[in-house]
Amino acid sequence: MNTLDRSFNRRLDLTSLHLCVVVCESGSIGKAAEQVFMASSAVSKRLSDLETALGAALLTRHARGVTPTPAGQSLLHHARSVLFSLNQMQDEIADYADGVRGHVRVHANISAIVQFLPEDLGSFSRAHDGIKIDLEEHLSSDVLRAVHEGAADLGICHVGAGYAGAELQALPYRQDQLVLIAPQDHPLARHTSLPFAQSLDCDHVGLHANSSIYRAMHEAATRAGRGIRLRFRVTGLDAMCRMIANGLGVGLMPRRAFELMQGASQGLACITLTDDWASRRIDLVARDFSSLPTSARLLVAHLGRQGAATAPDA
Predict the structure, then answer these.
(1) Which residues, 6+ apart, have CB-to-CB distance to 14 below 8 Å?
(2) Minimum mean pLDDT among 83-97, 153-167, 202-216, 272-286: which range?
(3) Are 271 and 251 in contact (CB under 8 A)?
(4) Number of H helices, E strands in the chain
């Protein structure tokens, strides 16, 4: 760090960053002052000093309150990231004080969580009971964003076209196979396998529009010059099965996830898709695997071994 960098750091303080966030979010210095139990004049002075230190106006003041300038918007983004990281640091240090020897933040998509992670994380936790894992479910695109922004140490998802190769690293974890699910009395249920395009005359039950499964469906339909008759959107695979079982359409989901849902999958047919894109890779994603904390590297190694042990040619 050069002298200029150190000087810049000394001119900033966490209290002023926090106040800037509160003021921007509330749109009023007075409201922000009430929230943080400070005098409005003291908050205003802090913000003015921050603007002087940064050499840029952060707020536009008007009769109804304040709005952030473009510079203020940029600072707001970075201040939120800094404060979030500090809160994470506080939580993790508290865990160490309680005897935890490591802490890994993992964001994963629904396919990885439903199909593989319960068993794989369970075996890891039994072998490393001093390492705490925080797992959150997100769409694949949001998983990649969280890893890129530092909100997650490790991502587990379908990378696909959302992968910023120069900024993130990826390692193979598992393979999954998308299949078509239909009621057993549906005309398509007589097939053991078919191309996805053959289902496009049917109503579909789908996941969120930003999910990797929906994007794969949409791209395949576009290549076929067709649209998807998506009549229902659901947030989970169990809900999808229930909708399909009640005759509301057909849907796509990973084969193993369908096989694991014993109750919800009753009365449903599982049809193999012959399309190449239906076979997908689930990756482990990090900004830099070599710079991860020891606890996270142990988890990556464990998940990699689990994936290799269950690979088709293993």
Answers:
(1) 82, 83, 86
(2) 83-97
(3) no
(4) 12, 12
